């Protein structure tokens, strides 16, 4: 039997999504053949290529010109001009598109960049022109160094054209996200399945690649299960044993393409395929879908019948336990065996009685199932000590397998000058986990009842590092993006030290929690060992707000952590949230004022405001159901019309009073954009000035952050006292090599020159090599000897104390 795991469009263009790499590794560990590919990227090139654009303009030109005429009649001359310009210059776009994508993948001809920048015959769109105008406004002419920006905006301009005249739901990332989020009716969603981009461009990708890749690479093994992971590899042999298709749905916007993919396999191969979906969107939005017994409604029955036409199963959470249980129960995925079995761990099964010809046998059917209108739904077994133990044992050892991914095809987009924002798109990052779940998992607003948050498990750092370094060398990609909910400081420190001992080949970044653990010393150590950026949830920049949401940290610790990272040259991004159930205008303004001070003091590189969304799987909702959180009043969907008791995509809930916060969105975003641009005049402006309606003055003192930073510096001066014999193993030398200069030694640390007099105990540490041996990259045995020497010599310990903050750090 064969298994194909698929990640459908549209997710991101610079890196492969990690779920395929992890499932590939898992299936191989189970003894199956496995490989992976990325149809998301294949769809991009199906459109953004010479042949793709030629077909796009052939399909869209008539409608484009018609829309331009309509815009002109309405007085919208700018829209009319831009649409007609695309059509008029279509040959330019077609001729240049391969060059544009080559530049964004690190190739292209440098000489042609001059032509693309200066030639009046190169294509231009409104985003490209806005970028060039911004350069002129800043007082400089464009250079070839700006071409990658220009190419990024060229792709965005073409995407705008597609959205405007060909497919209104198209986006470069997260296809049809608004539709998937807003609609609670499955029937409404399926109306978008035959959208132009999916029908005209994605279906040809499936037709061309799936059979060919399977025929060329998959071969049927005489034993074990054939597993093809992540979208572009896999063969189907319709007259052979059943093939399993695993489709990952990480975001709302990927659900419609996932259904399109599932329908393609079902229509072409029918009962010879077993289609299963899983992923982030599935875990949050489809957790109770089709639970007819517990949701006695026509919609539950309708959703069950609809979904059974596309898929055979839904796998929840990590999937390792459910797939293991599935294959153990029915190695050949025999429907009759599955129908008569007990429920599968964290897997919901669908049986279309009419199609499969399943005969019910009283007393032998499933333990937990519903049958109605020709469809049988077997519900998951949510708890299993045996399988939970199995997942706990294997999860730390599963290392992502990117062996089938061609990283050279991914685009390094640079559509934002902000250095932190660039990390997300400018680089073909290898994505991985330092830990699964969140080590805190108590924030009130978060989906803390779901495994991706509460199922905390660290990984085998030695094995992970070795696997990532091997991938980096094979793929010539040395950037790692850790996609954890929050990288645990202790685990992050181990990874960083391992990287240093390998001479720092990897550069890495990811999500953390702002907390007191991230001292100035630890931040410097992590930066020295390859950490380049962190993102974290600040959410509420007030002490009382952090307590309300049970953030598990305080505002002073957050300020200190940000200061430590920035001093160490690490980029910092903060996620902000407004419109909580307890929020008032005062609490929002206070949070905004503190955020302003963060930027004014240089503690953040970027940030983003999100509006709070109440979810069924959050801590606060659970507390409300248990009679707590009296300030929260959830509003269940009204029992009327087509959404009566709907259970599809029903994780998000409205709550009383949330509409009153809508008006804060634009002013918050406008102010934040100005602050990120570093406009000092606007940074010093009172926050009330950003609103066109009356808001209270902040109760936060305008020098609050500055005062905390003074305390932070004072506390750091005391850390030298931590240097003692018993914790000498926590000492690390990060400074440059001390160089003799007349009567003193000098070196560089954090871009500053440091010095100490010759003829002291420090000189002995330098000449003996002990100081150098305290560096993170020193091999374990050599470093151990240096630590023992320091531990036994009080004079050396005293000398090292004088170096703290000047190149020497002590980790807690």
Helices and strands, with pairings:
Blueprint: E1 2-6, H1 18-29, E2 33-36, H2 39-47, H3 50-73, H4 77-88, H5 90-104, H6 110-118, H7 126-137, H8 147-165, H9 177-182, H10 186-190, H11 196-217, E3 226-229, E4 243-248, H12 255-269, E5 273-278, H13 280-285, H14 298-307, E6 313-315, H15 320-329, H16 335-339, E7 347-352, H17 353-356, E8 369-372, E9 375-378, H18 385-394, H19 419-425, E10 430-432, E11 435-436, H20 451-454, E12 457-458, H21 461-475, E13 479-482, H22 489-501, E14 507-512, H23 520-528, E15 531-539, H24 543-548, H25 555-567, E16 571-578, H26 585-600, E17 606-611, E18 614-615, H27 619-625, E19 634-635, E20 652-655, H28 665-676, H29 680-684, H30 704-717, E21 731-733, E22 739-741, E23 744-749, E24 752-757, H31 761-767, H32 770-773, H33 780-791, H34 794-801, E25 808-810
Parallel strand pairs: 1-3, 1-4, 2-3, 4-5, 5-6, 10-13, 13-14, 14-15, 15-16, 16-17
Antiparallel strand pairs: 6-7, 7-9, 8-9, 11-12, 18-20, 19-20, 21-25, 22-23, 23-24
Helix pairs in contact: 2-11, 3-4, 3-5, 5-8, 7-8, 15-18, 22-23, 23-25, 25-30, 26-28
Give a short synopsis of this structure.
The protein has 34 helices and 25 strands.
Description:
There is one protein chain. The chain is an alpha/beta fold. It has four domains: 2-40 and 181-392, no CATH class; 45-179, no CATH class; 416-618 and 675-711, Alpha-Beta Barrel (TIM Barrel), CATH 3.20.20; 723-810. The protein contains 34 helices and 25 strands. It has a nine-stranded mixed beta sheet with strand order 2-3-1-4-5-6-7-9-8, with helices on both faces. A six-stranded parallel beta sheet has the order 10-13-14-15-16-17, sandwiched between helices. Helix 26 links the parallel strand 16 and strand 17 (606-611). The longest helix is centred in the first third of the chain and has 24 residues, at 50-73. The protein is globular. The two termini are 52 Å apart.
